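With this grant's support, the team has encoded backbone shapes as discrete tokens. A representative record is reproduced below.
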Amino acid sequence: MSGMTDWRKVSPNKEHGFVICNCNGKLVKGKQTVGTKNSLKVDANCPCGNLVASFHTHPKGIPEPSPKDISESYKRGIDCCIGVPETGVVKCYRPVSKSKAKILR
């Protein structure tokens, strides 16, 4: 993915995230944002193309979406990927309703 940095080397005490955009068949990372230990407002503007997913970290957590993660992804019609920097585990989810999501990988 174009513009990808090593997300495992971010501050372990804050959530980090970005959107993923499809620019003519190429996945492109949006602007990276930094939040607090428990929350993050991702900049949803794509540098080009269409918004297809969001990615953010759960510091010292588990790679499962919170109710807010699911509802925001459902509202935008995009997938949500979550990574845990300490373990390197990433899981992606597709919201199927405002409160439920199925795992993609």
